[in-house]
Specification:
By secondary structure, this protein is mostly beta strands. It has one domain: Porin (Beta Barrel). Helix content is 10%, strand content 52%. The strands form two sheets. Strands 2-3-5-6-7-8-9-10 form an eight-stranded antiparallel β-barrel. It has a two-stranded antiparallel sheet with strand order 1-4. A hairpin with a 5-residue loop joins strand 8 and strand 9. It is globular and about 50 Å long. The two termini are 29 Å apart. 37% of the residues are buried.
Length: 181
Amino acid sequence: MDGTLALIWLLTSVADMTANDCPNEGCLIKEPAQARLSYQFADVQFNDESIAEEFYMGYDSHRRKGPFQPTYGLSLTTDGSAWFGVGWKWTSQNVFDSPLFIETSMMPGLYAPREGIDLGGPLQFRSAFGIGYEFDNGSTITVAYDHRSNADTQARNPGLETLSIRYAVEWENGPQITSRF
């Protein structure tokens, strides 16, 4: 997998910003967003072969800037590898009035393979595409596919994919992480 998912994230978020944010109060205006804590279970694939299972925990910030919502993630796999990243998420929940939504994300992060696959270096970019459903209580369930690689910043760049299911809950009183973003 090349940078297709990263390109999808860029196109969806910029198109949303151009259509909905720029004509109104400004392209990158800071707005409140629904903070969520998520739990994700995934099958980790390398060269189309299942190599491990992954547990991922994420936090989507209580603020967004235009369509860009800061997101944080940590994953651990059954082969001992770990990844931590910080990036941006876009979701169609802010575009369409429907319980069904799509989301895309891009997260640079640090990867430690331990017994897992050597991906060519610690810097790994994780881009994702998901389809989800929001329940009446604000929780969501999402099926997502993501790709992780170093974007050719290293000589070796094999990449990993995951196919996952994620459950997220609203986190009203969670940490109010403030960034300059």
